[in-house]
Amino acid sequence: MPMFEFHCAKCKCDFEELVRAGDKIKCPKCGGRKVQKKMSAFAHKTSGGKFVSSSGGSGCSSCSKPSCSHCH
What we know:
The protein is mainly β. It has a single domain (1-56), classed as Single Sheet (Rubrerythrin, domain 2), CATH 2.20.28. Helix content is 0%, strand content 29%. The chain is built from no helices and five strands. The chain has a three-stranded antiparallel beta sheet with strand order 2-1-3, with no helix packed on it. The model is unreliable at 56-61 (pLDDT under 50).
């Protein structure tokens, strides 16, 4: 499954999402559906079943911002 980064036009949040064919993406913070796809780094599945980005960023698995409050 490819991982993409998205930007929400409503709340300006950036987040990552694993996308399958036919998925309708919505912002995890505000639920907005007006999102723009950005280029993302390669993601892989760990032995614990979690997907992680190989970009080495300090954000959580659902957000590219290191200090985003919606991630937890």
